[in-house]
Amino acid sequence: RAAQQGHRRAQVRVGMLAAARGDVESAAHWYREAAEAGSRNGAFNLGLLLAREGSEREAALWWSRAAAA
């Protein structure tokens, strides 16, 4: 519920739960929501997820955002 209301920390946590279940699409969604709202952890975790899925170039962009946050 907090994630749906835009709370970045909750969005990252929901993303982590989704990733642990193997739900890559949902994890990416919640990490991206958090990252676009300025969450360093959201951007970093999205980068990790993308790198694992083979999207290294996009992962690097999110890691750059994480470093700048």
From TrEMBL:
InterPro entries membership: TPR-like_helical_dom_sf
Q: What is this protein called?
A: Sel1 repeat family protein
Q: Which organism is it from?
A: Streptomyces sp. SID7499
